[in-house]
Amino acid sequence: MKVTMKQIAKEANVSVATVSHVINGTKHITEDKYNKIMQIIHKYNYKPNSTAKNLRQQKTKTAGMVVSSFPDSFITEMVYGVEERAREMGYNLLLVNTNEDKNYEEETINLLHSKMVDGIILSPTSNDIEYLNAFTDEDFPIVLVNRYNNIVQHAPKVTGDNVQTGYDATMHLLQHGHKKIGMIYGVSNVSTTDERIEGYKKALQQYNLPFNDSYFELGHATVSGGAAAAKSLLSRHSDITALFIQNDLMTIGAISQIKDLLLKIPDDIALIGFGDFASSSIIDPPVTNIVLPPDTIGKTAFDVLLNKINNPDYTKHIELPPSLITRQSCGCK
Amino acid sequence: MKVTMKQIAKEANVSVATVSHVINGTKHITEDKYNKIMQIIHKYNYKPNSTAKNLRQQKTKTAGMVVSSFPDSFITEMVYGVEERAREMGYNLLLVNTNEDKNYEEETINLLHSKMVDGIILSPTSNDIEYLNAFTDEDFPIVLVNRYNNIVQHAPKVTGDNVQTGYDATMHLLQHGHKKIGMIYGVSNVSTTDERIEGYKKALQQYNLPFNDSYFELGHATVSGGAAAAKSLLSRHSDITALFIQNDLMTIGAISQIKDLLLKIPDDIALIGFGDFASSSIIDPPVTNIVLPPDTIGKTAFDVLLNKINNPDYTKHIELPPSLITRQSCGCK
DNA sequence: CAAAGTTGGTAAAACGATTAACCAAAAGGA
DNA sequence: TCCTTTTGGTTAATCGTTTTACCAACTTTG
C-alpha cells in the first residue's frame, strides 16, 4: 500500500503540517523532530503525491509538447532540445505526436489543458489554428515552435528564419549556374513551406528569372514519398538541373529515384536537402544541406514558455538563422 | 479565470453531483436539466480538471515511458509504437529520455511514480536495476522493454530475440565464407548486447571456429563513435573481413571510416548493420541489416502494461523474432 | 515584572472533482 | 388505499497535499 503523509505524521507523533514543513523547508522544525520525521520518510521511501500537490498549488511543473511528426530527424532533435532544457528547469514533459492529424491536435491541446500542464509548446500541423485563441484568451501559455501563424495573437513564437532558408539554398544553386530549380516538400499550408517558397521566389527575382509553381512538387514526407515526388517532378520538367528538398526522408527517397533514372548527382541533377541528418556525409555523393538549429530552437522554445508562464504579456517572435553545410551533392568542391 | 464544476452547477441551479453525473453518464438526468447543463458546459468550453479527478480516482490514465537514448531510430520507432497504442487506449504518455544516465533514470522513475502515472514502460540504461524491486514489490506496474534483466522478478518484459539476432547475422556472414568477423557495439552491460554476443558465439561454435573477444569493439553510439570504433578494430585486426554493427548511427560512421581507409564494401569488408534505418537502401553500397520490429515491440509493450495494471500477477517475457533484410553490403546479390 | 516579540507547532480550510449514502416524490402493485 | 419500488437528485465524505491563521510557551526588553 502506498504510504501517505498522514501515516508519516502519525508514526512521528506530529501533525501532517509539520511533515509538510519538513519536506518543503517552509518552517524551522527542532532537530529531534526533524530527524525523526526524516528517518521515517526514508524508511518508507516516501514521496509526496504530486497529484495532490498539483491540485493544491494549481500548477504541475509539467509542460506539454505537441508535435506533428516524429520520424523526421529535425523534429526529433528539436524535441530533444526541449527535453533537455525542461529537465534543467525541473519540469516534466508530456510529449504527444499528432501525426499530422489536425483534429487529434485540437483534442490533444484540450486534453493537456485539462491535465493542468503549466503550458504547451506546439508545432502545429497546419495554418488552421484559430482554435488556439480560446486558450490564449484565458492566458493559458502556448508557445508556437517551428511552424507558426499570426492568427494566434498572444502566443510567442520560436522558429527558424525560413524565408532566409529558402533564399540561401536557392541562391546557392543559382550561383552554381542553375536556372531551372525544382522544389520538393512534404507538407503544405504551413509557415515553413510557405516561407521557404517565398525565399525561393525572392532569389529567382534577384536573378530576373521567371517563377513557375509547376516546379514545385508536394509528396508524402517519407522515403517513398520523396522518390515518387522526384519521379513526377522530373518527368514533368526534364529541364530541371537542380532540386531543393525540404525534408531528410524525402531527400533519401529522391536520391534513390535519381539513381534509378541513371542520372548523376550533381552533374545531371544538383541537390540541396534540409537538416543535417546523420547519413548526409555517407551517402554517395555526400549531401549538401541547409540547416536550422533544431536543438537551439527547442531550448529557446522552452525558455520562452517559461517567460510566458511568468509573464502573460510576453509575446515575441524569435527567429533563428539558417546555415549551409556544403558537400558534393550541390556541385561544390 | 478557469471555470469549475461548482460554477457550472450554480448557473444551472443544480448540485455539483448532478453536473458530474451528466458529464460521466453515471446517472440518468431529466432531459431539460441535462440540456441546460450541457449548454452551460459548452458555453464555457468547460473541461473537468483532471488533477482533481485523478486524485479522487487514484489513477491518471497516464503512462510513463523512460528510454535511454533518442536519436537512435530503433528507439524512436519503438516510442512511436507505444504512443500509437497508448492513444488508441485513451492513455497519455509521459516520455522521458535519460540519455544513458543511470542516476537520472532512477530519479525519473521516482518522479513518475510520485506523479501517479498508472505504470511505466522502461528501457533501462544498464543491467543495474535492482532499485526497481522497491516499486514492483508494492505492485507498481513496470514493464521492461528492449533491454531487460531477470533481477527484477515481477516485471513483464517485451524484447527482441537478441540471441537469435546475433546468431542469424553471424551465420549469414559465415555462410558467405567469412571467418574473422568483427563486432561493433555502442553500449555494454545491457541484455541486447550480451545476448547478441551470445548468438555470435553460438554461430561460431557451429562452424567450429574459435572465439576471441578482441574482435569486439565498444564505442560511442554516434556516427563519429562508429567511425572511431571501426578504425580501432580494423587496425588491431587487419584479418577482419566482415563487420556486424549494432546501431544505425555507428553503421554510418563505420562505413565512412571504411571508405576513408580505401577499403571496398563488401569485397574487402562485408557488413551487416542493425535496424532498418531510412538511408540503408541509398548508401553505397546499400546496407544489409538484421532487424527487430520496433513498432510491434512498442505496441506489445503497451498492451502488456495494460495487462499488468489490471492483473498485478501478470509476468511474462515476450520475445519477438528478428529478420534479415539483405542488400549488397553483406556480399549478397 | 509586565509587555512585546519570537519560536515551534497545529487545526482546518482549501484545491476540484467523484461517489456512496440518503431522501423525497412519483409510479407501480396488491 | 396502502405499501413497495423506482427515479431524479442532493449531501457530504473523500482523495493527499499545502498554507493561512492561530496559539501556547518561551525570550527579550524596558
Automatic annotation (TrEMBL), chains A, B:
Gene3D superfamilies for this protein: 3.40.50.2300, lambda repressor-like DNA-binding domains
Work out whether the entry's keyword set contains Metal-binding. no
Residues covered by the HTH lacI-type domain:
3-57
The record's section on PROSITE patterns has:
HTH_LACI_2
Q: Which UniProt keywords apply?
A: DNA-binding, Repressor, Transcription, Transcription regulation
SUPFAM superfamilies from the entry?
Answer: lambda repressor-like DNA-binding domains, Periplasmic binding protein-like I
Keyword Repressor on entry: yes
Q: By its UniProt entry, which CDD domains does this protein fall under?
A: HTH_LacI, PBP1_LacI_sugar_binding-like
- Provide the leader sequence positions: none
Q: What is this protein called?
A: Transcriptional regulator, LacI family
- Which organism is the protein's source? Alteribacillus persepolensis
Q: What is the lineage of its organism?
A: Bacteria, Bacillati, Bacillota, Bacilli, Bacillales
